[in-house]
Amino acid sequence: GGNLVYRAISFVAARQSVKLPPLRLAVLNEIPLGRGLGSSAAAIIAGIKLFAHLFGQDFTEQQVLGYATELEGHADNVAASLHGGLVVTCVGDDGGVLSVKKHWPPEIKVLVISPHVSLGTAQARSVLPPQVNHTDAVYNLQRAALFGAALDERRYDLLWESMRDRLHQPYREALVPGLREALSITRRKGLLGISLSGAGPSVLAFADDCYDEIQQDIAENFHRYGIETSARLLKVDADGARSRKL
User: Fold this and answer.
1) What single string gives the DSSP state of each residue in 34-70?
2) Per-residue pLDDT at 23
3) CATH fold label, 109-234
4) 153-186 burial, b if ≥16 CB within 10 A, otherwise e?
5) Given this model, what pLDDT does residue 157 score?
6) Which end of the chain has fewer CB atoms within 10 angstroms, the N or the C?
7) What one-character DSSP code corresponds to residue 19?
8) Looking at the predicted structure, is the pLDDT value of residue 2 above 80?
9) 120 to each of 38, 126, 128, how far by Cα in Å?
């Protein structure tokens, strides 16, 4: 079927040689689709955890992550959906997924502004170049390292620079009117950093004050082109995926 939760259940059932009985799923999803917010990863983790719950499988987190990564195609979003918090991942030389969960400072809130435009992952990937130059790769590696260090040392003034990018945002900015301008807003009180959320088109901002003003400043760049937006002020979930009987 087309439902990604069910597809994940079916995928794991095939791997485990389990014949699925007829199932009826009731899914309540609060994550908008096609907005760069990880909805597919959340659905995949939900399906795998549901399979384990229904069929009494005691999967390790590494098994769940392995199945989810195979389905999603990369580990970044599924690891975050599974573990919660700030998660760093990489794929080892043997193909296994390595992940570390780090503490997220609760004083930093996540502001997400989503233009009402759907942007499929395939479309967002199609504009990326097949190769990147060495200078741009070093630029991003430096800032990825700076991001982690800034959080660890509570140097939140460094988040702005650490969230700058040369590998994907410059190519994706043109896909949605107003996106380039939204990502180019100047620093202001309360705004710690800004970037695309995933492949877009949502814009993600870290903030510790002035949330309404920041949201309005970002959204206005889309409104100029007649594109409506939705804003969400989010706290980072520290627990990750959980299952329980109703």
Assistant:
1) TSSS-HHHHHHHHHHHHHHHHHT----HHHHHHHHHH
2) 87
3) Alpha-Beta Plaits (3.30.70)
4) eeebebbeebbbbbebbeebbebbebbeebbebe
5) 97
6) C
7) P
8) no
9) 12, 10, 14
Query: Could you tell me which CATH number the domain at 4-102 has?
Result: 3.30.230.10
| Total number of residues shown for the chain | 246
Domains 4-102 and 109-234 share a fold: no
Nearest to 192 by CA among 163, 162, 161, 159: 159
The pTM (predicted TM-score) of the whole model is: 0.89
Burial environment of residue 46 by CB neighbours within 10 A (0 to 12, 13 to 18, 19 or more): buried
Mean pLDDT check: name the lowest of 110-124, 153-167, 218-232.
110-124
- All structural domains of the chain with their residue ranges: 4-102, 109-234
Instruction: Tell me if 99 sits within 8 A of 87, measured CB to CB.
Output: yes
Task: For residue 228, count other CB atoms closer than 10 A to its CB.
Answer: 11
How far CA 29 is from CA of 33, 127, 230, in Å, comes to 9, 29, 16
pLDDT over 90 for what percent of the chain? Answer: 82
Q: Which tens digits make up the pLDDT trace of 19-60?
A: 999 988 888 898 888 888 889 999 999 999 999 999 999 999
Q: Is the pLDDT of residue 1 over 60?
A: no
- Is 193 strand, coil or helix? strand
**Could you give the CA distance from residue 192 to residue 161 in angstroms, rounded to a whole number?**
9
